[in-house]
Write a structure and sequence with these properties.
heterodimer; A: alpha/beta; 2 domains; seven-stranded mixed beta sheet; 15 strands; globular; B: 118 residues; Alpha-Beta Plaits; two-stranded antiparallel sheet; two-stranded antiparallel ribbon; 3 helices; 16% strand
Amino acid sequence: MSRFEALTGDNAVAMAMRQINPDVVAAYPITPQTETVEFFAEYVADGLVDTEFICVESEHSAMSACVGASAAGARVMTATSSQGLALMWEIVYIAASYRCPIVMSLVNRALSAPINIHCDHSDVMGMRDSGWIVLFSENGQEAYDNIIQAVRIGEHPDVLLPVAVCQDGFVTSHGMERVEIFDDEAVKEFVGTYRPQWSLLDIEHPKTFGPLDFYDYYYEHKRQQVQAMENATGVILAVAEEFNRKFNRNYGLFEPYRLDDAEVAVVVTNSTAGTAKVVVDRLREEGLKVGLLKPRVFRPFPARELAEALKHLKAIAVMDRSISFGAMHNAGPLFLELAAALSLYGVHIPMADYVFGLGGRDILPREIESVYRDMLRVAESGRVERLVTYLSVRE
Amino acid sequence: MAQLKGWKEIPIAGMILEAGNAVEYRTGGWRAFRPVRGEAECIHCFQCWLFCPDSSILVDAENEKMAGFDLDHCKGCGICARVCPVNEKVIRNAGTRLARDDARLCIRIVEEGKVEEH
């Protein structure tokens, strides 16, 4: 049995954390993730969880405490946004390199400067080479579901990597929605008990985490991380299948929406995919063959699967909520990586990038519609006139 | 050097799963400076043994004597010379600044490659 509640995305994540009942949570409040930490602190104060909740003095300390606790054998969670993630930086890499299956709720927010508290994806895109698994969530429900699955994905013995679960700051973190909350027992059963293979607190078997590692072995340890990422794809799918059997909601590496017979498609993550679905439905009523692909798993990047899913199209628009400054054509990271993937797998379709929504700039259905109409023209002519468009920026 | 292992054969994340194996890692090769016993009389106070960060002061436990340096692991940091109370006394009596490798010291610090064995 489950129940439906009206929850913000932050609250939905806190609810998942309560049900998971992690051993340790170390977090520092930062907008727009703050509510998650506040709600969770209430659960701790009310005795609803057994968690050791560490109120640290900074995000650098938050991630450091998470790494220490994880090395000690604890199931560990944290939450952050934007500057908080930036301040965690060096320990973000260390968490992945020490193979600590920490689960992080990452509520996406623009990076300074100028300072801005609203949504874009510049925070998470910065961590894309850090060795974390990255999942995107369209809404509070997906954030809740992904957090629960993230525990199982990260802790899988063939993976042992930290997992960041993203949702859009304010758009979904503070937007109230109908969220299905599973029974506490069912979630508890799904996530199971974490039995770390190596634990610093296992004093019968003393061991060292984090020793110096030079030219003789460092490279081999990086190669192991590659293998963990390769293993992660299969584990993500297996966990999703088990989740579907138990909770009756289907997740994959990405979600295709009216894509099968589409001629043009937009690729966009998180909440904007929800808006784009409305636009797709509207344009379909006009008889236009448009579809959507919403990436869920960004790390590991499912290049082959994406190429397979998109190869029948006549034009593809990627919508990027961040810029990779100085990269090819100053495009966004999602576009660049997808373009590389399609090229490698021999899929040569006209593509264009639409940067949008930086610093929380609203993205309206009519703007997404303009992207589709651009792509319909590209499909017809076979020519991309403008590779990168900065959507709705004022000239 | 022992045969290096492949990435499938070693613990993940650089973990060391056995305790007390630092001795197998010979860090003596890092040394640019070497501690050498000088002419002043060692009083076997074990200050150098107490402070050495690499457990590289050899001790004759039976006779309670400082017995020399474990050069397989000593990194040449010079802490032994710094904490040596005899060095302190020699420097004070000299009334002038002494070089780190002054022969009058109890523990002197000599550049590797310039060590004259006695």
